[in-house]
Amino acid sequence: LNADVPYTVVPVSSLKGDNVVKPSENMKWYQGKTLNGLLHEPQPDVSGTNPLRFDVQHVTHAQENGFVDYRGYSGRVISGTVAVGDTLRVLPSNKESVVTEIRRYTETK
């Protein structure tokens, strides 16, 4: 683990659901947050001081006229910044791609 990147250890049992969504009755010694609670809590750090971390939640892959080998990624920026023209390395394939468009969707109230 990289000591410069903050992380949290959560003891879980997916078989019984311990600490996944609700606090475990079987692990009373653990007083921290559940895995679900931690996954929905992060506040993005878009200060630009940390490298880009993008939580990919959906990949759109279209292969049709005008979109040869197109891939669109949906998710949220956890840290860093991204701009059109940036070259990104996608892990674990280690392939590089250039950002050609950014679409931002926000909830309307």
> How many strand elements?
4
Spatial separation of the terminal alpha carbons: 41 Å
Largest sheet report:
2 strands, antiparallel
Structural class: mainly beta
Oligomeric grouping of the chains: single chain
Our Rg estimate from Cα atoms comes to: 18 Å
Mean pLDDT: 81
Q: What proportion strand?
A: 25-35%
Shape: elongated
Q: How many separate helices?
A: 1
Helix proportion: under 10%
Order of helices and strands: HEEEE
Strand order of the largest sheet: 1-2
> Which segments are poorly predicted (pLDDT under 50) over 5 or more consecutive residues?
none
Question: Please, could you describe this protein's structure?
Answer:
With 109 residues, the protein is mainly β. Helix content is 5%, strand content 30%. Strand 1 and strand 2 (67-79) form a beta hairpin. The radius of gyration is 18 Å and the shape is elongated. The model has no long low-confidence stretch (mean pLDDT 81).
